[in-house]
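Any chance you could type out a protein's amino acid sequence plus the matching backbone structure tokens because I've never seen that pairing?

——
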Amino acid sequence: MACTSCSTKDGQPKGCKNNGTCGTDSCNKLTVFDWLSNMSLPNGEEPFNWVEVRYKNGRKEYYLNTENLTLSIGDIVATQAKAGHDIGMVTLTGELVRIQMKRKKIPTDTKEALKIYRKANQKDIDIWQKARDREESMKVKARQFAIDLRLQMKISDIEFQGDASKATFYYTAEERVDFRELIKVFAREFRTRIEMKQVGFRQEAARLGGIGSCGRELCCSTWLTDFRSVSTSAARYQQLSLNPQKLAGQCGKLKCCLNYELDTYLDALKDFPKVETKIQTEKGTAVCQKTDIFKGHMWYAYEGEWMNWHKITTEQANEIIELNKKNKKIASLEEYANDVLEETKTNFENVVGQDSLTRFDNPKRPRKRKNNRSKQQNTQSKNNGNNRNRNTNKNNNKRRKPQRQKSNNGPK
């Protein structure tokens, strides 16, 4: 159950002792913080009797607590399945479950609601753990069977039901696959009920996880739950270069983050005229070459003079287009382009005396090698200096007067 530091014993989490939500591994994958856990309900209010239960790879289901069990986050429970029972971990209780079900449009008054049977005992956990230990070896064999049958599909993961009566095979494929023969091989080899479920490439990336080009964990594996379609028009509206290597994520599809700021760009583009609209002037017809969404500027060039661009604002462009609709022409774009002042860039001086941040970007200058002649001159000058010092020492010794020797005889 969960990560290695939160292993279970008798159905109760241990390790970090944080009720199975340690924040280090898949314990809290796509979970919601229960900020209402320390608050009591008003008098007369009954607690919401639905519970959120998480299974492998972040899959979550909602169950009705008909037995009124006292459940808390991290409890392992036995839940109702279409055939048999399943084992999962409670991730959310109380009023926040009502909000999550409303957000996911799950009805609470349905008669086909699945129920929670009981808290899982040690026997249930042992059967569930043995079944999960078989999943990795089965996945290797299943992939080999798919290759032998030459099916264009990839078995991405296997999930056993809690009572080990059914195995769900998740696979990815670009086209429709006829896997009827594959199911017969699986049932004959693994001796269990088989269910095949196709997942998209985005769901596959969310299951594997990883680090994106922004340096953070993938959104699909941390908080993103609804995978909306992303088209190349989202990149065009944001004036991004249509480079598939930069716009594609680890799943091979366009990045989900292209939709995050798309609505803001669409609101800003409402004030811009269409790029295809040409401006009629007495000097000639002008065509839009470039737009700046943040500053609200547009660049136009006359037909035949494509190198000379004239910058005007969006208000001026709309004004000229309205005049053209009334069969009126302006003299030239230069009249409007002169009104757009260029913003002067302030160059701040280095008053603190710090080194430049680009000092390492400059290439190092090669050191000048000394000539051999200069080396010979230096050695000759050193030798001459030593000889002079020796001659001066000899002359000094000659000039010194000899000392008188004392006689050993006494006075006569």
Q: What stands out?
A: Residues 1-5, 17-26, 405-412 have pLDDT under 50 and may be disordered.
